[in-house]
Amino acid sequence: MTTASPVRRDLANAPLLAAASGQTPERTPVWFMRQAGRSLPEYRKLREGVPMLQACFTPEMVAEVTLQPIRRHDVDAAILFSDIVVPLKAAGIDLDIVPGTGPVVASPVRDERAVNALPVLDPASLDPVADAVRLLTAQLGDVPLIGFAGAPFTLASYLIEGGPSRHHERTKALMKAQPDVWHALLTRIGDYTLEFLGTQIGAGVDAVQLFDSWAGALSEADYREFVFPHSQRVLAGLAFAGVPRIHFGVGTAELLPAMREAGADVVGVDWRLPLDEAVRRLEAAAPDAPKPVVQGNLDPAVLFAGWDVVEREVRRIVAEGKAAAGHVFNLGHGVMPDTDPAVLTRVVELVHSIR
Fold first, then answer.
1. What backbone torsions phi and psi does residue 101 show, to the nearest 5 degrees?
2. Do residues 237 and 199 make contact, with C-beta atoms less than 8 angstroms apart?
């Protein structure tokens, strides 16, 4: 993995980076998870006939898709268009992203033999990702670029289940019944994640987000025993770069202190927990630590409720975010495919107008 930080753009005054470091920016920064992609007609037109993973390995397409929401919404950050399974695909694991289903793995990994057979990721296989980042940093001006990856637990769930899962029963069974196999698997996946994020950092991203989308399926005790060491290893492995590290999961209200302890500079909060309560829990868990920085947390479904409701909820969340040292406004999960892009643009304008 790249361990030398590249010469990067001087964006110290960018609202996102200022908020992420606990400073007071000129305005509350806002971006949206899944802002690049399925809700935008220009994206759907560009992607016609192009499979998702092919798009993720085509630098010019990655750059164009990443830039589309910047042009349309005037958000305060771009997030690299990619998918959490890209490092798995780059390593040579047989998987595909099936429309309407999600990632599907041809041969699920459920025992020691399968873990031992997992390939080593060749860094050169990620060259298209690095090329896309370099194309973007040359075009984004003073807008920060966020890189991202899936956390080891979430990637392990896809590999073990063979695809998306509602209850993660096979994942939990392997975790509990064969802990040595489990930790060996997450160590290998952690290697993939570190290489993937290291490639993005080496090419010039300005922040990173580690998505542990399905960690909310776990108790805090199981998270700390089976997941925390691997997420901590990944986040610690990125400290050399000095870029903000955002950590996010869905349904993780009971895990937020542990997720911060794993090495997050910014804690992503989904819509189930008010931001001021999230801050209270984070401070109670680590009273001697610096005041936390949070990201979130408008319920994506609220975007369908009419502008009066949207405005009320946005103003509430901005007010609650003032309990933190810094607040990055976002959704509590990704933009839904049928979301009206015009509503997102109005949300950005509103957030920027609130003082």
1. -120, -55
2. no
Instruction: Tell me the one-letter amino acid at 294.
Output: V
**Catalytic position from the list 8, 9, 27, 38:** 38
Q: In this structure, are strands 245-248 and 102-105 parallel, antiparallel, or unpaired? A: unpaired
Q: Binning pLDDT at 50, 70 and 90, where does residue 4 land?
A: low
pLDDT tens readout for residues 148-177 = 999 999 999 999 999 999 999 999 999 999
Residue from 8, 9, 47, 134 carrying the catalytic annotation: 47
Phi-psi sector, 250: left (phi>0), alpha (psi -120 to 50), beta: beta
Instruction: Tell me if residue 110 is catalytic.
Output: no
- Contact call for residues 251 and 278 (beta carbons, < 8 A): no
Average pLDDT of every residue of the chain: 96
205-255: pLDDT as tens digits: 999 999 999 999 999 999 999 999 999 999 999 999 999 999 999 999 999
For 253-301, give the DSSP string.
GGGHHHHHHTT-SEEE--TTS-HHHHHHHHHHH-TTSPPPEEEEEE-GG
Q: State the DSSP string of 169-224.
A: HHHHHHHHH-HHHHHHHHHHHHHHHHHHHHHHHHHT-SEEEEE-TTGGGS-HHHII
Residue 83 designated active-site: yes
> 43, 158, 192, 223: which one is catalytic?
158
Active site residue 272: no
Q: How far apart are CA 355 and CA 352, in angstroms?
A: 8
